[in-house]
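Example (one chain per record):
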Amino acid sequence: MDQKQFMSAVSQIAEEKGIPQNQIIETLEMAIAAAYKKDYGKKGQNIKVKFDAKTGEIKVYQVFLVIDKDMLKEEAPVSEEEAEFEKEEEASEDKKIRFNPYKYMMIEEAKKIKKDAKPNDEIQIKLETHTDFGRIAAQTAKQVIIQRLREAEREVIFGEYKDKEGEVVSAIVQRIEGKTVFLDIGRAAGILYPEEQIPGERFFIGQRLRVYILKVDKSPKGAEIILSRAYPKLVSRLFAIEVPEISTGAVQIKSIAREPGSRTKIAVWSEEEGIDPVGSCVGQKGSRVQTVINELSGEKIDIIEWNENMDKYIANALSPAKVLDVEIDGNKRSASVIVPEDQISLAIGQRGQNVRLAAKLTGWKIDVKSEQMIREGKKEKKPAESESIQAGPPNSKSVGGEKKPKKIKKAKTKKLSSAKAMEGKDDHDNKKS
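Predicted structure:
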């Protein structure tokens, strides 16, 4: 083959597989060495090939490891047949080796070739170059090339996606096995396990979506890429794509709390004056946040402004409910929030979702109470006989059906008179008897 055509083929493989050219050249050298050893080498030989990419010249060497007498076992040298079954052993101070004339060279012989040779050095002796190989040798070289290129490609893919951990990529649904979904993410396939899916989300072959690269591990078959659609940082990454202010750092995402498929709360903040962090994320007529919502299959998103003042931050976190007052306990990291009577259900949310997400977002324990509940709590602490207690404003609604003090007094009097009447009746009956 012409040298230009050969290097053109090498360049094409390097571009397609994403493997450096020097790594492909090393693979070719290993393949030629395997073929040479198959046809022309002796059993146990360590053959090394050097290929000049510019001239196309091939040089073959036999590599010997230099040893001294102290490194040898006191045994007879191995024969050519025994060398095939010898285990690979490295020379060391603590480990004796069995002498193999095809792999090792004594220090005395090595100094004749290289004057400054020392134990554990390598001596290379040039061998006759052969370019005509048999069918079996050619097949051996082919297998070496295929295996080494596959291993190199796996390493490249693993390194590429390992660096992409924590990023969002576009994916296409490749196949579905039970509840597990396999997606094509470019040069590799990723796995979307059921626990990393948005609850209730359905997939079909060829569907395009964005996924979060959660983890990349090595496996015998290559890189195992675990994807996620439920991870909270997926939302922040999607906002970074849609909102230029976030990607440039003008707006920062301080915290995020998510219940996949249902609702997400995200706290944003900006140090720069004149930038509205919430407005930047919402976009004109809600265009930016709507794009993220559509990507998450209609998941609701609350965007609130982060505040270093914990009172205001907790009040914002309970949005869309209006908050009247916040009392915080820094030691217990808990907060008592007072809201209007008509906002209590909104503040708590369906099945406590709103207050639960607010607690996750802020990292504080939050107790939500209405004004009426606070007033009733104060009343219960005071004696019922007090004449100064009032039932409350006429327009206020009584929670729990509490009775006025006057009615309570009447009830007590009535019960007391009934008790006295019964006592009188018993005395009368005793007298008769």
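Caption: DSSP finds 14 helices and 15 strands in the chain.
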